Amino acid sequence: MKRLTVLLMLLLAASTAVAGANPFGVRGGIASSPDQLVLGAHMQVYDLSPEAKIVPNVELGFGDDWTIYSVNAALLYTFLSSDMSGFKPYVGGELGINKLSYDLEFEGFSASVDETKLVINGVAGVKKMLNDRQELRLEFKLGLSDWANDFKVLAGLTFF
């Protein structure tokens, strides 16, 4: 729990430090396999075009006797011509590194296991500008590789 508090404080401090440079945000949601609560942050670091953006993110998932630290780089394409009551749909892919920590038990013996794995996720979502300084994101991630959560459902808020 102490590590979680320190990580969240560092994320908030980093977000505040770069407030004027790049849009940044916070996110949270749930994940499946393992079932977890997920907290994180993201930052839009590079615009390839008005539609295509590179949006790296970090996430911490905990629960179901697992802790997963994720560092991801997402390439997202927004359909700007689509307008669903102000929501703009987007799709993309994400390459990431997951650090997995879990306990393994076998015939009365137990051990803590730490592994680092490369993961791939498919991403789909919608976003809506709330005002000229904030954007709401609703996102779905589908794990396309071993050691990724089967899926994640996240909500986020981006600050400009």
Q: Can you describe what's shown?
A:
The structure is a single chain. With 160 residues, the chain is mostly beta strands. Helix content is 10%, strand content 66%. The chain has one helix and nine strands; from the N terminus they run H-E-E-E-E-E-E-E-E-E. The protein has one helix at 2-17, and strands spanning 24-32, 36-43, 46-47, 52-63, 66-78, 88-106, 109-131, 134-143, 151-159. An eight-stranded antiparallel barrel has the order 1-2-4-5-6-7-8-9. A hairpin with a 7-residue loop joins strand 8 and strand 9. The model has no long low-confidence stretch (mean pLDDT 91).
Structure, briefly:
By secondary structure, the chain is mainly beta.
Describe the secondary-structure layout.
Elements lengths: L1 H16 L6 E9 L3 E8 L2 E2 L4 E12 L2 E13 L9 E19 L2 E23 L2 E10 L7 E9 L1
Salient structural properties:
9 strands; mainly beta; 160 residues; eight-stranded antiparallel barrel
Strand content: over 45%
Got a strand count?
9
Helix-strand pattern, N to C?
A: HEEEEEEEEE
What is the general shape?
elongated
Rounded to an integer, what's the Rg over CA atoms?
A: 17 Å
Strand line-up in the sheet with most strands? 1-2-4-5-6-7-8-9
- The percentage helix is 10-25%
* Main sheet: strands, sense, barrel: 8 strands, antiparallel, barrel
